[in-house]
Design brief:
108 residues; mainly alpha; 5 helices
Length: 108
């Protein structure tokens, strides 16, 4: 494993553990039918994001796309829905992610 592979893995682990896994493990119990449907939709979108993030070829590419995902209109809509469902977004881990990237010497 190269140094860049290790850095990418550390950043990906952070995003998955803090933002994506809680969404994927969220349970529909106690939610309204509309919220259950919304939860299934954000899970589907999150699964797609996980695959996209895993497919990036470098740590720098992962960082650049993380930063882009903070401000893109489609991502903002998903973030709003996640917040409404009381689930974390990548915005919630932005500071921690940016500190980790800086500590690893990875910039966009």
């Amino acid at each position: 494993m190269t140094s860049d592979d290790r850095k990418k893995r550390e950043l990906l682990d952070l995003v998955e553990r803090k933002a994506f896994d809680p969404v994927m493990h969220a349970r529909p119990d106690g939610r309204s039918p509309a919220d259950r449907d919304a939860l299934e939709e954000v899970k589907r979108k999150t699964e797609s994001e996980i695959e996209r993030y895993r497919g990036y070829d470098s740590a720098a590419t992962l960082v650049a796309n993380f930063e882009r995902d903070l401000t893109s209109e489609p991502a903002k809509r998903v973030h709003a829905e996640l917040r409404r469902l009381d689930l974390p977004t990548i915005e919630d881990i932005r500071d921690e992610f940016e500190r980790k990237a800086a500590d690893l010497g990875v910039g966009a």
